[in-house]
Amino acid sequence: QVQLVESGGGLVQAGGSLRLSCVASGRTFSSYDMGWFRHAPGKEREFVTAIRWNWSTYYADSVKGRFTISRDNAKRTAYLQMNSLKSEDTAVYYCAADQNAGVTTAPGSYAYWGQGTQVTVSS
To answer: Is residue 71 scored above 90 in pLDDT?
Structure first.
């Protein structure tokens, strides 16, 4: 069992930056694929970015060049650096983990989820 706790959300003006963190319980964090998803009101949960255990990274087209995913295995933490934020980035952001996320963009590929952290971008 893995527990995920996100932090770092908040209110920011358009063009600003935020860094989200996701701390995982357990000793095998380095073997997990990690993903970030977001859910805005009236929309389906949306893939944002993912980083595999082997450091391969994936990004949604909407965030490429603005968002960066990283991980620190010693701290059992995944990060999401968000720059040049836009109003359309407003959503609840969720961290997800799985030992083998077959399709990194699919929510169903991840067995473990955090509780989410709200990101609000004001225009």
So the answer is: yes
Write down the pLDDT at residue 55: 96
Contact 22, 95 (CB under 8 A): yes
Find all residues with CB under 8 Å of 104, minimum gap 6, and list them.
33, 35, 47, 50, 52, 58
Name the residue among 17, 60, 52, 10 with its Cα closest to residue 31: 52
- Measured CA to CA in angstroms, residue 110 lies from 52, 66, 78, 102, 122 at distances of 12, 24, 15, 9, 31
